Give the backbone structure.
Amino acid sequence: MQRETVCLTEFAGTGDLGNMSKVQMLLSLKKQRLTAEEIFALFEKTIAEYEEELSRSKEENKRLQKLLDAVLQPQLRIHRAALRKKKMATSSTPNCTTLTVWIIGDSYVRRGAQRATETIGSNLGLDLRVCWFSWGGLRWRGVLPFFSYSLRGIAVPDVLLIHCDLGDVPSVQLLNQMKEDLHQLHHRHPGMKIMLSQINQRRLWRAGANAVKIDKARKFVNSVMATFVHSLNGVIVDHSNIRHDSPGLFLRDRVHFTPRGNDIFLKSLANCLKDHLQRL
């Protein structure tokens, strides 16, 4: 392989080697009249390097996928397994008309699901299959990807109920994004009833912005989105009975609900589902 070393040194001296692909380098080496054995050895070495690089890429893709799965709440896998079991049970029961409701949202939904399980049941005391999908810190921009991720391999629910924190400062851009996302959901799944849970009051908005201005923006977003959701033949869940100045509704963080606050929150969801799903 002495000839190979000489050739590589000659190329390096001209400054061309760094700009060459491996294939170009092999073709150039071939022109140096290497022996068949030397050429074969170079090809064999290059192929081995390609195979090693490909193997590393596959391992990296697997690692990134595991990280993504870890970020998107482990309980999703539990929900999906439970849904498949319910689907199998339903398929074995003739003329089953029980509707499936998905409730998707942020930490309000997670805490609400825990409280429902402890009190009235995860189905909110209704003759429905209610499945809860929560992601702490979920903002509106993540709702559509979160729904699509949760939906993989599972039938579309009859009803999708969304309760999501919009952040501390709702904006016109966010309002337009909400409309676009709900329009896409309605277009992709026309048979699915969309229910939007309105932004509830808080005792504290974490950005430290003016509470009066934030509340005005909250009311504006709720009003505009109510009109839009109704245009999609959807339903709005009203939370006007949750007031920031009502005693005993909020925890010490002044954001999340106490058990009593959660009971009022869940009652609003249950009443809305009961009133409107009878018409389906």
User: Anything to note?
Assistant: The longest strand covers residues 99-105. Strands lie at 99-105, 128-134, 159-163, 193-197, 235-237. The chain has nine helices and five strands. The first helix runs from residue 2 to 14.
